[in-house]
């Protein structure tokens, strides 16, 4: 069954690669139908081979003692080049500058980090949320790129084949609150969190245990020129994270240690990223041709 699905996936990806070639046309994109989602891909750049839009619709990020559910969609968009000897294609950022969208997620328990038990009465949950997750005491967690888009790497074969690393993503996590300020960061451009996400099975250090991703269910759109994967699950629970810095503005030397105390241990084996995605991939040539047909 697995071999059959992998064979079908490879045939679908080959169909994308053989999509009709298009010549350079007007600078203004006039994409139609399902192609409109690729408007921010550098599809006129001959080095780009595929355009991709991946929307994380749910999942969670566990950083030490903190678990943050993904409730607002996060979009990764752009393109990627031909795979090199290492099996990865280099990423090309979105033309509008928003390669990874910023979607603030609510941190359960806010500043104090008090989270009620799942079995707690609904009234208790509501009161804790009201007092600890309001505009003053609530905390938002926003995932951001920590490096240029060119340092993202994609393995098309691993993404489809549920094996090894499919997406290398350097990120940082911004924690925001009136008290914490806007520069409270876990990770940075000089010390990023390095996610190596897989649709296969992880092999993390203890105390984490292996978790399983999924390539999802594949569909072919626009007469075989767009591949859609619904239910794709990208996971990594082997990553480490640096200490939080910049929390509390001028009082960072006092506040950052408090935040790190709340986070607890963030070395490898204590963190998890689970991203449930819908992924769209199209040949650059197919996207360009669609634009040419709509001058």
Give an account of the 3D structure.
This protein is an alpha+beta fold and 295 residues long. It has a domain at 56-74 and 84-217 and 229-281. 18% of the residues lie in helices and 33% in strands. The protein has five helices and 14 strands. The relative contact order is 0.21.
Cα-atom radius of gyration: 21 Å
Beta strand count: 14
Which structural category do the helix and sheet elements fall into?
alpha+beta
The main pleated sheet reads as: 14 strands, antiparallel
Shape descriptor reads globular
Fraction of residues in β-strands? 25-35%
- Residue stretches low in confidence (pLDDT < 50, at least 5 long) are 6-28, 127-133
Quote the average pLDDT.
85
Name the helicity range. 10-25%
Number of helices: 5
The secondary-structure element order is HEEEEEHEEHEEEEEEHEH
Termini separation (Å)?
A: 44 Å
Name the features:
295 residues; alpha+beta; 14-stranded antiparallel beta sheet; 5 helices; 18% helix; 33% strand; globular
What would a concise description of this structure say?
This protein has helices at 2-17, 122-132, 156-161, 252-263, 284-292, and strands at 48-63, 66-69, 74-81, 89-93, 105-106, 140-145, 153-154, 167-177, 181-186, 193-197, 217-221, 226-236, 244-245, 271-283. With 295 residues, it is an alpha+beta fold. Strands 1, 2, 3, 4, 5, 6, 7, 8, 9, 10, 11, 12, 13 and 14 form a 14-stranded antiparallel β-sheet that branches.
């Amino acid at each position: 069954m697995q071999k059959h699905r992998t064979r079908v996936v490879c045939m679908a990806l080959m169909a994308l690669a053989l999509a009709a070639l298009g010549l350079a046309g007007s600078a203004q994109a006039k994409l139609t139908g399902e192609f409109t989602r690729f408007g921010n891909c550098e599809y006129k750049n001959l080095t780009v081979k595929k355009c991709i839009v991946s929307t994380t619709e749910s999942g969670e990020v566990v950083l030490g003692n903190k678990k943050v559910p993904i409730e607002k969609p996060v979009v990764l968009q752009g393109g990627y080049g031909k795979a090199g000897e290492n099996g990865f294609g280099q990423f090309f950022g979105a033309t509008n500058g928003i390669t990874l969208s910023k979607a603030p997620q609510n941190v359960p328990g806010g500043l104090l980090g008090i989270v009620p038990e799942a079995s707690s009465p609904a009234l208790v949950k509501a009161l804790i949320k009201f007092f600890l997750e309001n505009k003053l005491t609530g905390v938002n967690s926003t995932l951001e790129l920590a490096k240029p888009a060119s340092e993202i790497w994609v393995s098309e074969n691993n993404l489809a084949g549920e094996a090894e690393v499919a997406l290398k993503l350097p990120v940082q996590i911004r924690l925001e609150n009136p008290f914490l300020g806007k520069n409270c960061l876990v990770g940075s451009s000089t010390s990023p969190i390095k996610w190596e996400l897989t649709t296969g099975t992880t092999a993390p250090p203890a105390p984490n245990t292996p978790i399983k991703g999924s390539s999802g269910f594949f569909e072919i759109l626009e007469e075989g020129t767009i591949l859609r994967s619904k239910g794709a699950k990208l996971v990594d629970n082997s990553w480490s994270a640096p200490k939080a810095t910049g929390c509390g503005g001028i009082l960072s030397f006092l506040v950052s240690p408090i935040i790190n105390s709340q986070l607890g241990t963030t070395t490898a084996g204590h963190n998890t990223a689970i991203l449930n995605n819908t992924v769209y991939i199209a040949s650059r040539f197919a996207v360009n041709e669609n634009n040419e047909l709509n001058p």
